Amino acid sequence: MMQGTEPANPNTDPMVSDAVKAVRDRFGAVGLRGLIALATSELARVEKAEAQLATIENAGHVAEPAQQPIDAADTQAWLAYTEADPE
């Protein structure tokens, strides 16, 4: 498809750029539209999870079971919130 050199965005992780280029090269505009729709949905979920985490007071809070299944977005939001290294 559209191979070539694009100007690098210093604010974008190379892994993200590579993933977008892979979708572009394999699926074209249709794939990029699907990626944007999926990314928009995931962004809303992560922002909601981060907002929920931000309301938790660290002192004296007793953890409660999750009311919905926990997924990767929840885990990533927690790691970002606590600045924990996943490894």
**Strand residue content:** under 5%
Structural class by secondary-structure content = mainly alpha
Average pLDDT across residues?
A: 80
Q: What is the number of helices?
A: 2
Any idea what the shape is? elongated
Based on CA atoms alone, the radius of gyration comes out at 17 Å
Roughly how many Å apart are the termini? 36 Å
Q: Unreliable stretches, pLDDT < 50, 5 or more residues?
A: none
- Helical content stands at 55-70%
Largest sheet: none
Order of helices and strands: HH
Extended strand count: 0
What report would you give on this structure?
The chain is mainly alpha-helical and 87 residues long. It has a domain of 54 residues. 60% of the residues lie in helices and 0% in strands. The chain contains two helices and no strands. The radius of gyration is 17 Å and the shape is elongated.
Topology diagram in text:
Layout: H1 14-54, H2 72-82
